[in-house]
Amino acid sequence: MKSIISKIVRLMVGYFLYGLGIVLTVNAHQGLVPWSVFHQGLSLQVHITMGVATQVVGIVILVLDIIFGERLGWGTIGNVVFIGTFIDLIMSNNWIPIPENIAICYGMIVVGMAVMAFATYSYLSAQLGAGPRDGLMIALTKRANISVGLIRNLIEVVVLIAGYFMGGSVG
Question: Averaged over 45-62, what is the pLDDT?
Answer without folding.
Answer: 98
